[in-house]
Design brief:
With 106 residues, the protein is mainly alpha-helical. The protein has a domain at 2-70. The chain has helices spanning 2-39, 48-101.
Length: 106
Amino acid sequence: MLKSKKAQVQGVITPIVGGIIGLVILVILGFVIISTLNGANLLTSGSNEQNATNQMISNFTTGINNVSNKLPTILLVAAVVLLLGVLVYLWANFKRMQGIGGSSEL
């Protein structure tokens, strides 16, 4: 029973962590590609493409700033949920151990 619950939890957490890591990698790659295209001077300085690239860089920076402002709150909520989950798990194990050990009365 314990192994199946552990497998279920790992089955949920592993894809979430993998997805977050993949998202971070894709954002970093996007920044690298856009800054490389912008710094290569392939586009003329007054062209619509150059303006679009500059706007894209500005939008990426604004989006990252918006997310980073909310990150401490998200991490705090995740930490509280994790702490409550650990407390519930410990309480359930305490109750189970109390029932197994029992007490011997004279």
